[in-house]
Amino acid sequence: MVELLNESACKINFIGKTANNHPDWYKTPLRLNEKERDNPRLILEEFFQSYHLNDVREILWGWTVAVVSSPNSISSDHLDRNNHFFFYEKIEQLIEACWMIHYTEEQQKKVPVL
């Protein structure tokens, strides 16, 4: 059974923690400029020029381990830990799907048109 992520509650308040809670910001990109919103594949190209797929996996895993195992972690509850691992797996799948889209497009650019 898959538990919903929103059932987890952060029990620690972090100073300097940011949250984008403005209602107009829900379900809209916050970090993309107009050019990137018009062509989001630019982000894939830039991202995968900066990071190899395995690098991303290592960084994500490092973050997950830090979140789950650090003293005073926000994941002190077993459900929180499970939700973090579930989120990690979904982010990894998302990155792999983005990589496949990027890689496929790069390969198609290399194929000569007859």
From TrEMBL:
UniProt name for this protein: Uncharacterized protein
Protein origin, superkingdom: Bacteria
Organism: Niastella caeni
